[in-house]
UniProtKB/TrEMBL annotation:
UniProt name for this protein: LPP20 family lipoprotein
Record keywords: Lipoprotein, Signal
Cleaved signal peptide residues: 1-20
Lipoprotein LPP20-like domain residues: 46-122
Native source species: Alkalimonas delamerensis
Length: 150
């Protein structure tokens, strides 16, 4: 009987926990500074597949833009390096190095595209203020502004 009474008292006290008697107010927090990243991509004109010069120019323009996006992804996410070296009798037999980049770039804009000799160059710019606003539209960052206990 005594254990049932203690058990009932524990259930009553558990009902008065702090989770039910407080109110949290949240606010969003913006960073103080937003960096602006810039990248330049290049592609050769004469090596592009195409039937005429205009088609080769369009292919080089597209390739230089993709190269600039790759460079932006390297700046944002870093570059993965895989290296493999094999030895035989303490002599290097095979040395391999592979680099890759993976990521999603949102909010970049083309600053300008122009020919440079036999190549085409594209300059991109990524303003992290735009990236922050895109992210806030999807999932706003919040912090506790005020806690009120009852």
């Amino acid at each position: 009987m005594k254990s049932i009474l203690v058990l009932c008292c524990l259930f009553l006290l558990a009902g008065c926990s702090l989770m039910a008697d407080r109110h949290l107010e949240w606010e969003t927090v913006a960073p103080e500074q937003f960096p602006v990243l810039r990248a330049v991509g290049y592609a050769p004109l004469s090596l592009q597949p195409g039937q005429n010069e205009q088609h080769k120019m369009l292919m080089a323009l597209q390739a230089s833009k993709l190269d600039a996006y790759r460079e932006l992804a390297e700046q944002v996410y870093g570059q993965r390096i895989d290296a493999n070296t094999s030895l035989q009798q303490l002599l290097v037999q095979n040395d391999q190095l592979r680099a890759s980049v993976q990521g999603v770039i949102r909010g970049a804009r083309v600053v300008k595209s122009y020919p440079v000799g036999d190549a085409y160059a594209t300059e991109l710019e990524l303003d992290f203020r735009d990236v922050y606003e895109l992210f806030q539209a999807q999932q706003p960052e919040r912090r506790i502004r005020h806690v009120r206990y009852y």
